[in-house]
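quick one before i forget lol
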Amino acid sequence: MYKIPLSKPSYLSYAEEVKKAVCQVIDSGHIAQGPQVEEFEQRISEYVGTKHAVAVSSGTAGLFLCLKACGIGPGDEVITTPYTFIATVFAVQQTGAKPVFCDVGRKTYNIDTYKAARLAKPTFWRKLTGKKRVIMPVDILGLPIDTRDFDGLNIPIILDSCESLGNYPDRPFTAQVFGLYPNKLLTTGEGGLICTNDKRLADYCKAYRNQGRCPGDTWLDSSQEGFNYRTTDLQASIGLVQLRYIDEIIERRKRVIERYEENGIFLSQRIDYKKFNPFVFVVEVDNRDRVIQHLKDNGIESKPYFPSVHLMKCMSGYMPGDFPVSEEISRRTLAIPYYADMSMDDVDYVSVVLKAVLK
C-alpha cells in the first residue's frame, strides 16, 4: 500500500450520504435500472446542458453505442488520436471500423485539429464507395478540444470526454461520452454517460443498451439489435449524491493544483486549470522509471500517462516514428497524486520528494 495513492474516489467526503442513498435503493427492492437511473440522467443532462443523457455500463460502451447510432460499421473509418486510453480504439474496432490516427499537439496533448480536419475531408473514393468517416477526438487528461475547427465537414463528431466531466465549453458535437470509473471526477464504480441533443441518437442508445427493446416493445420483444449495456439504480444513487456536490469537488481539486504550483510543481500540459478541470496532474520528466521508483520508495504512487496506442502489443501495422509527437509525450509524461480529498500536507510531501529526484 502507498502512503499517498495516485487517486481516491470523490464520494469519500460524502460517504454517509452515499451509504444512506444506497440503503434506500436496497430497501426499495428495485436495484436494477429504474427511477434512480432516470433521475440521474435528468440531472446530468441539466448539468451538462444537453437535451438528453443516457446512462450506460461504461464509457467504452458509450463510445461504441454512439458510433453504432451514427451507422459506423465494417469498412468505415474513425479519426482519433494515438495518445489516449486503449478503450477509445477498442470501441472503434468493435464496430468493425478502422481507427485512423492523427498525431497530437505538443502543448495540449490533444489531437491536431488542423490535421484531423484534413483527414476528414470528403474524397472521391469515399463518395464512390459510400464509406463513412467520423471524428472521435479525445478531451485528453480533461482538456476540452475545440471542435469548431471541424465546422463545414458535415460528419458526426463523437467526443470522447470520459476524462472531462465538469468542462463545458461552447463547441459543436453530435454526442459526448463521459466515464464514471473511480478515478474520474464523479464515479459510480463503473459506468458511462452519453449526452446529446439528438433525440434519434439518444433513443437508439437507450434501446441498444437494453437488448434492443424500444418503447412499445413487450418484455421479451426487441425491435432493433442490442446488448446489455445497462447501469443500475445502486450506481445511479452514488452518482446523484456526488452530483449535488460537484462544484465543491472541482474547487477542492483546484486547491490541490494551486498548492502544487506554489511548491514549484506545474502541469506540463498547457491547461488553464482555473477555467477547466484537469483529470490527472501530469508532469514531464527525464528518466521516468527512476523517478517512479524514487517516489515509490517514499510511499508515493505514480504512473505513466499514456502509452501511444499504435505501438501497443494489441495493435499491428504501425512502426515507431509514425506519430512522433504522441510517442515523445508518451515517453515523458508521469501522473502524480491528485484528488479532491488530498491534504495540503500530502501535496507538500509529494512536492519535496519529486523536486529532490528531479534535481
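fyi The mean pLDDT is 95.
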